[in-house]
Amino acid sequence: MVRCIFHIDLDAFFVSVEQVLNPKLKGKPVIVGGDPERRGVVASASYEARPFGIHAGMPSSKARRLCPQAIFIRSHFSLYKDASAKFMEILGDFSPHIEPLGLDEAYLDVTGCEEPYGSHRQLALAIKERIYKELELTASVGIAPCKVVANVLW
């Protein structure tokens, strides 16, 4: 039997958690991270902020210069940890073979788990739907016979 590995990554995780808690932030350039007036760093940027060149790891002061209208939010790691725990719990309902890669992503070995779903693609869709239904977060899934390729394909 050929192995099947999923690489599952929650999209713009920190920002997305903040947007679930405050829906008024949806559709706006939002940046989670350190204070732009100090030596802060961008932890996550919404998809609306990214066209301005903003990305994780960039100094918050530079992000402010690139997108002055962005909404800056300090990180709330306890909220992200809670959402991550629920995410991992959902993955565990699909396969016991989970390898977390951080709060917002994991490898999931789903070899032999596709039968009730018809295919690995359908299983991936079921996982994405469950994550959205329970957490209101979107996810990307890479599907491959090994971790390296699954990670590249997401």
UniProtKB/TrEMBL annotation:
Keywords: Cytoplasm, DNA damage, DNA repair, DNA replication, DNA-binding, DNA-directed DNA polymerase, Magnesium, Metal-binding, Mutator protein, Nucleotidyltransferase, Transferase
Catalytic activity: DNA(n) + a 2'-deoxyribonucleoside 5'-triphosphate = DNA(n+1) + diphosphate
Cell compartment(s), UniProt: Cytoplasm
Enzyme class: transferase
Transmembrane segments: none
Cofactor: Mg(2+)
Major subcellular location class: cytoplasm
InterPro entries with a match to the protein in the record: DNA/RNA_pol_sf, DNA_polymerase-Y, DNApol_IV, Rev_trsase/Diguanyl_cyclase, UmuC
GO CC annotations on file: cytosol
Gene Ontology MF annotations: DNA binding; DNA-directed DNA polymerase activity; metal ion binding
Residue ranges occupied by any UmuC domain in the UniProt entry: 5-154
CDD domains the record matches: PolY_Pol_IV_kappa (cd03586)
SUPFAM superfamilies named in the record: DNA/RNA polymerases (SSF56672)
One GO process term, biological-process aspect: SOS response
Pfam families linked to this entry: IMS
Record carries keyword DNA repair: yes
EC number: 2.7.7.7
Family stated for the protein in its record: Belongs to the DNA polymerase type-Y family.
Protein name according to UniProt: DNA-directed DNA polymerase
Annotated source species: marine sediment metagenome
Phylogenetic placement of the source organism: unclassified sequences, metagenomes, ecological metagenomes
